[in-house]
Amino acid sequence: MIKLLATDIDGTLLNDNREVSSSTIKAFKDLHIPKILISARMPQAMTHLQEDLKITDHPMICYNGALVISKDQSIVDITIPFNTISDFVEIARTHNLHCSIYRGKEWFVPELDFWANREINNTKVEPVVQDYGRTLEYFNQTRHKGGAHKIMLMGDEEFMDLAFAKAESKKLPVHLYRSKNTYTEITPNGISKIEALKELLKHDFSNITVEQIVAFGDNYNDVTMIKEVGYGIAVDNARDKVKEVAVEVTDHHKQDGVANWLIKNSRLFQ
């Protein structure tokens, strides 16, 4: 019996318009269990989706597990240290890449370039626009609040290849994740979606086990989650590595894969 639903957002839950479809909204409404959005996104880029799904009172897992929020409180809060933030700003400058820096509800960009505007369109969030120097000064002066939950490098593939290799060679205390050829996401070491889920179970849902979770995903950062939960489901557009560890493959995210699976398997929630 399934007692909790966890789902990735981009490429999994959302349709081609980056929205939750009416079918998904109805499928969520018909499920009377905790429903957790779990994403690389920042909190502000997830709350409007919670509103659409009528689950604003449910926890959320942000930044691939670096920040877990329940009842407006952070139950997991792991950040990248200041010196490492500075290292990635320098890498971005050297290789002509855009560098976005995130902490909690804050998102900092050096300018409203193509990459920043693309993320604004995708996430419906407005960033703080200021030069890298001011952003680094701000993080230096507020070290007591922690570092960054995520850094995102964006730019041309050939420059990204060089930057990724440089970052790997420096052996910085972070996890590097190439989500697209033109995107590299940097998160704190030791975090993952499945570990964040386990912490959430301990904090909020001690009567639920990992085996009683259904999780949906599509990308490399979903692999361990899909592999470890009781019901790991890949959407049809998922990476092969995700499909390999999934117990089942549902329809493409553009064809309501999550909603379709929930409807077909309603007996598992009784």
CATH superfamily label of the largest domain: HAD superfamily/HAD-like
CATH class of the largest domain: Alpha Beta
Overall 3D shape: globular
Largest sheet: 8 strands, mixed
List unreliable stretches of 5+ residues: none
Share of helical residues: 25-40%
Which fold name is given in CATH as the topology of the largest domain? Rossmann fold
Structure commentary:
- There is one protein chain.
- This protein has helices at 22-29, 44-53, 82-94, 114-123, 132-141, 157-170, 193-204, 223-228, 240-245, 257-264, and strands spanning 4-7, 35-38, 60-62, 67-70, 73-77, 98-103, 106-109, 128-129, 150-154, 174-180, 183-188, 213-217, 231-234, 248-249.
- With 270 residues, it is α/β, with parallel strands linked by helices.
- The protein has 2 domains: 4-77 and 191-269, Rossmann fold, CATH 3.40.50; 82-188, Hypothetical Protein, Haloacid Dehalogenase-like Hydrolase, Chain: A, domain 2 (2-Layer Sandwich).
- The chain has an 8-stranded mixed beta sheet.
- The longest helix has 14 residues, at 157-170.
- It is globular and about 55 Å long.
- This is Hydrolase.
- GO terms for molecular function: magnesium ion binding; phosphatase activity.
- Keywords: Hydrolase.
Key descriptive features of the protein:
single chain, 270 residues, alpha/beta, Rossmann fold, Hypothetical Protein, Haloacid Dehalogenase-like Hydrolase, Chain: A, domain 2, 2 domains, eight-stranded mixed beta sheet, six-stranded mixed beta sheet, 10 helices, 14 strands, 23% strand, globular, hydrolase, HAD-like_sf, Hydrolase
